């Protein structure tokens, strides 16, 4: 049940870049943010050094080269055919989510695109670079070119990527200072959208729905403990949290809130300040 | 070393108190604090590399083969965390925790013997705290240069399985996974389908005396019997005896007797040497060759190099990895056939060469982890110069099997069962003049063990296990093994509860 929206791409590249690098507006934390520095302590670099500038062509040779890398590094979890049926899958999570992604399903969590859309190439690149806290190591050891090759190979596993022109989430504003007033406003938003139903009043991941959630593959999926930003799979910089909240994590139980914030996107930055205020690390 | 002996009367309370303490303690350790070095470094759960610690899953094996770098990459320097005072090369505490880890094992054991009057073979409960502590310092110094240092403190008995590893690995020489060279003190079997180190059912060391001959064995060690020496009647030779006290067999030096139950050669806990391994033809086929230092059992002191070759093949399937491995290990002049009639040591004319061959298979599928190995040992026929020693009977072949199946019931519970058996070799019958009639000295041994393990955190395992001797019901005349119960029979069963954790 994938909702695919084909909308004109307006200044897609610019927006993609901002979202994919974990940058937003004036916060220029470029390459290193994508390299996995978790936002706050990323070192600002001139934009020219962005790895995304060094994209290599998406052609058969690079897909094939990507497959060879996949067989060295990814096959253990994502399996021989990319269906997520690697030998490590059940040892990693015996009876809960997540299981390694099934790349033939076309369902992706860590996107800068609307719910139901495919991720951008940069989204995949970022995931491969940073890894997924708890479940997948980052692959910074691969050169930029090799990481693009991996992206192209993974895309080749799902026909949904063919001709996909995913619509990006709308980014309005930039992170705002975490003043008491902003945190207070964020708290109101958290209450209004009932984040606590799953994440619990104090963000500990113990809301009343917490025990009932499952992912699209039928595995029990506990909501995140919002007090532990280092466990955020999608990153914990403000721009990352913006993506999480607006795009949702498809295939899991974390909904997308872009429709709810339509016209009041500024409030997301308050909500982010509230989430950050919960951190106990 | 703290060995506390409690009599049976006090034990339930003590047991309960201890376990309440351990459980209370493990539940207050913060989650993030309970993740060892590599997991910290890559910010992932232990289960990315382990089926359940200490066993490696296929990803963990490749991580190990690649010198603690993410498989496929040479990320030795890339993944290094920020170092404060970078120009000075200083490390922060944060960085050190990415290299250092501590593993702690503690046990409460109760054994039951046929003859509990033998010195150390007591039915009393033993609380051994801590049993084994390992401190690791391991990681990558730069791309493709890895190091591993492990200091181990083992408090249990003499001859306890104790190892300290210290080695460097130069990775990916000549191309990705073409050759990785390991130099130092390491465990040769690390990449075998049934590795010596990583057991769900941790080895319990022997209680034995290797400075006497024949070695009094109060308690047989509980470890995969396939790995053990299996040969009775062998020593490390006259030179070692002379170095202590030439004439008095009670004053031999430590390590003089080769325990038929100690792990040896390829399956030794550690050896000093050089090994080269790689997967040059894609990801399925693995080779490993090595040479390790050894002392001959000949009269003059001489260092030789034992040689080994191991080949392994992996098949990947849906949710599964199946591997088979085979190795050959050659040790020249490795052991001296030795007799000790009436307090005088008699040696064979020559030290014997020793060959070891093994095959192993492992199948991980979904939540199953099944592995087994058969290891064959072969020594030269011992030759003694004179009667009556020359009339002794020897088996030059021996064989051992160990098979284990582990099953993950859910995220936190694992159950396992292991079967071990050993078809012993070496000295079989003493010369007739020296009361050498049946039954044979080299009695076979076989055990079955079951374990239930609970992981409150991925890096903390609490377990209860039980070992049953499958041969102990067979009664032997007591004169067969130095006038006491034969060690392969004497230990009837053992129950152990303990903790194995890393942080």
Fold and architecture overview:
The complex is a heterodimer of chains A (281) and B (503). Chain A is mainly α. Chain A folds into 3 domains: 52 residues, no CATH class; 102 residues, Cytochrome c-like domain (Cytochrome Bc1 Complex, Chain D, domain 2, Orthogonal Bundle), CATH 1.10.760; 98 residues, Cytochrome Bc1 Complex, Chain D, domain 2, CATH 1.10.760.10. Helices cover 35% and strands 0% of the residues of chain A. The longest helix of chain A is centred in the N-terminal third of the chain and has 14 residues. Chain A is globular, with a radius of gyration of 18 Å. With 503 residues, chain B is mainly beta. Chain B has one domain: Porin, CATH 2.40.160. Helices cover 10% and strands 44% of the residues of chain B. In chain B, a hairpin with a 7-residue loop joins strand 12 and strand 13. The radius of gyration of chain B is 23 Å and the shape is globular. The N terminus of chain B is likely disordered. Classes of the chains: A mainly alpha (281), B mainly beta (503).
